[in-house]
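Summary for the steering committee. One of the milestones for this cycle was to obtain a three-dimensional model of the protein with 2-deoxy-2-amino glucitol-6-phosphate bound, which we needed before selecting residues for the alanine scan. The sequence and ligand used are listed below.
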Amino acid sequence: MCGIVAYIGDKPALPVLIQGLRRLEYRGYDSAGVALLNGDSIERVRSVGKIDFLTDKVKTRPPAGTLGIAHTRWATHGGVTEENAHPHVALDGKLAVVHNGIIENYRELKEQLAGVNFVSQTDTEVLAHLIGRHYHGDLRSAVQQALAHVRGTYGLVVMHADHPDQLVAARLGSPLVIGIGEGEHYLASDATPILPYTKKVVFLEDGEVADVSRAALETFNLKDETVAKHVEEIDWDQTQAEKQGYPHFMLKEIFDQPTVFQDAVRGRYDLTEGTGRLGGINLTEEEMRRINRVVFIACGTASYAAMIGKYAFERLVGIPAEVDVASEFRYRDPVVDDRTLVFAISQSGETADTLAAVREAKRKGAFVRGIVNVVGSTIARETDGGTYIHAGPELAVASTKAYTNMVAIMLLYALQFGRLRRVSIATGQRLLSALREIPEKMKAILAQSDEIRSMAEEYIRHRDMLFLGRGINYPVALEGSLKLKEISYIHAEAYPGGEMKHGPIALLSPDFPVMAIMTRNQLYDKMRSNIEEVRARGARVILIATVGDDRAREISDRIVYVPETMELLEPLLNTIPLQLFAYHAAVALGKDVDRPRNLAKSVTVE
Ligand code: AGP
């Protein structure tokens, strides 16, 4: 997710824009830029890297003007370069745009803009030229007409050199807030850049367009019908605003999952053909058919996400798939060859063990692809292709939304490979239809956060917890135990349900509770038996069960119901109660949730 700031008023715009960008740096900071109207022309300055590089650039000759737009980028399309930095311009620099979101059909739109000399790889530049194509003197109308052709998400602000008292903003899927001052207006991706100047704001809703001058703010829909808005008074402080009202980044990122999940899958599957459409694989269909083995290399949460990929590839593609924690892979003298496909899974794209494993796999001749969150990161650059998971900056040390998006991308890859071998179009369509229902089903679980908090508060008096799951829910149990241990410091471990009787059951007692996933799937009865073994030892049980399974209450002390979905998609849902349980346990214990002791967000050392 990127950060947008804009100002129209009587003050010099540059200080407002720069300070605003600094307050949005938490949203992404691989490049930044400003554009100000100075007289009858737009002056633009952009830089790669943090905001400091931009301020150094403008120090010698700061652009003047009292109307301007600014942007700090979290790259999604195109590398981290100055050419790809926003603002993007059209009409020979007379029109400038800043944008947060993903234009799904930007390639089609680009083809329709024949004759345009594109200078960047971004979807936003296409948007700028599309608005320019529709501009015939009315800026708001040009924006509305252009957006009618757009599929995807946007929060954007547009300025034009011939309109010195106008900014046009629009929102669909990416937030935009407008601060109301005396004879001036502030626009931003969230309230943080606006708070120092005014607490009176208007939140744009999806499908709305704002026409902003120094004296007035009018809002419309894309058909130019007026939309009435009410002014809200916000009482957040700076840090609350960065977290959009959530007490911690981790909780915000847990609740971001329905939205960022859609960013991950948008435009990356073909429902008609029942397959995935992940172009980054950089393999022909023939090369994909030749692959006879898949190895996932990753660390921590990413390795548990990778285990879902393993199940999916074995189930849908019918080839051996294995997960190797990267720190082991790199020293194990792994057997890989030119028919092995190695996926490196990493949120940061900088994890030293995973990077070393990538280099080892390449050295041995495997196809190596990345499934990474941070665009332009080392692992993204050193793999010969792959897919960005579009989770946006994940700031809490404990990974949540990145895990979900990694799983989503691996499911799409497994389907894409599977449809070249043994998956029927009907099965593919059924899986994709189930995938499209995931965001609403996630929300149904997130709505139980308070109930899960009461469970966490009840169970934090225990110093241990055993997580149990079977089949595709075993990696879910592993991820849940990692979440709990890394932020609450409660000792937690996970076992396959069937493995418990081979030792761990000795641990169980009334003071050693169990969190178990017993959703309706092929292993339900087996899991139920395991839970009954647990109960026979007097251990308390929290169950994750499928909505409608009333019998689950008989063998649980507490229960969280999750909506039913296809077995391969269960981790996208079943992990969320465990994320929330860990979060609330850590909060109840007064731990530093976003910055747990001894941990770093990215382990760039061995
Ligand atoms: C997850 O909650 C942990 N913070 C940690 O296990 C993390 O997943 C691991 O370090 C891998 O990081 P990466 O995804 O950035 O490579």
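Key point for the committee: The two ends are 29 Å apart (CA to CA).
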